[in-house]
Amino acid sequence: MNKMGEQMNVEQLFHKSWFRPTSLSTIAMILYLPVGICLFVIRVFILLQFFLMALLLPPSKMRQKCLQVMAAVLGMTVSAEGDPGPCRGRVFVANHITRLDHLAIHVVTSALKPALGAVPYYLLQPLALTASSLDNQTQESIEASEASFVVFPEGETTNGDVGMLAFSAVEIPNGINLQPVAIKVSRHWFNTSSVTGGLLNELLIFLFLPNTHFSLRFLPVEVVDNEGLWKQRTQSAIAQELHLTATKLNASDKAEYTKKLFFRPPSLASMARAVQQQLSPQILSPEVILAALQQTGSAEGALEYLRQNRPSSLGTAGIPAASTFSKNATQRMMSFQERKRLMIASARQRYIEKHELQITA
């Protein structure tokens, strides 16, 4: 049994982008680009025929053969090893690499993936989905069903290179025949998946590239006897077959990683402008606002601090704020100098923000 990988970092399980930035792949991609565009346009029209075939043909071996041929024309080739056996009333459990994994399993086994949300009934069959859910079914209803199910307990896609997420997103009733499926995906020039893309990105890549190959390995059938044990046992079996590490990371860890990957903290200048807008019409010097931001660390904290300790008429170092005006010529000149300093400091902060400069105090 494969050892659970507790020390693996979450970023090792995902690709940050679709394209592989190597000089050879870049040159090959440029040369292939005209062919890929033509292929994409042709496949868009063929996709409608695939949709109609999947919608109109009744379940049969002939339908499976037709779907496999049409899928290959669209850029998805599938090879299968092992014995899927009689698929009726069975639940196929697989690792998750692309959002179209269930289609690769469907063209071989006719298994349907439970739809996560509300999907129009006329789209269910062409998309290899079913409105039924394993959560509200019993062992008897699943075994009596004409269809079989395919589920992805990881809950999220991975790159399929080094490890698997923990099985935590699916519950299967006890006594159900469960068959693990190990999936490998390969394609030219592009990674198999990316944290930056969704279903539309994957579909465009499928139609553009010459081929995306799915290799399915059907493992021996198991019987679900304990909900806690089957998850770890099945995850380890698939990971061992694919030479991957069965980790304890889950879909929530991927969500946190994605959030950190794309989170850009607001700049000091933008927070200063936000604070000044909240304090309007009174204008404070940038030094006062920046000092409050550096002391509190956030726009909300700086705003609260300035409201509690708001300078009544003075800016930094005893200089009158720009909003005050005096009949005294000296004070008017000081007010002018303060406004000038305010404009220069604001322009400086906008320049720093625009060019993303790192300026230390």
Provide an overview of this structure.
This protein has helices spanning 23-56, 61-73, 101-109, 121-124, 139-144, 199-208, 227-242, 251-262, 268-279, 286-296, 299-308, 329-354; strands at residues 4-5, 76-81, 91-94, 113-114, 129-130, 149-151, 163-164, 177-187, 212-218, 222-223, 245-247. The chain has 12 helices and 11 strands. The chain is elongated. The protein starts with a strand and ends in a 7-residue tail after the last helix. With 361 residues, the protein is an alpha/beta fold. Strands 2, 3, 6, 8, 9 and 10 form a 6-stranded mixed β-sheet that branches. It folds into 2 domains: 4-262, no CATH class; 268-354, no CATH class. Residues 312-335 have low confidence and may be disordered.
Question: What class would the helix/strand composition place it in?
Answer: alpha/beta
| Mean pLDDT over the full residue set | 79
Q: What is the ordering of alpha helices and beta strands?
A: EHHEEHEHEHEEEHEEHEHHHHH
The total tally of domains equals 2
Indicate the radius of gyration in whole angstroms.
Answer: 30 Å
- Major beta sheet summary: 6 strands, mixed
Helix content: 40-55%
Which features characterize this protein?
single chain, 361 residues, alpha/beta, six-stranded mixed sheet, three-stranded parallel sheet, 12 helices, 11 strands
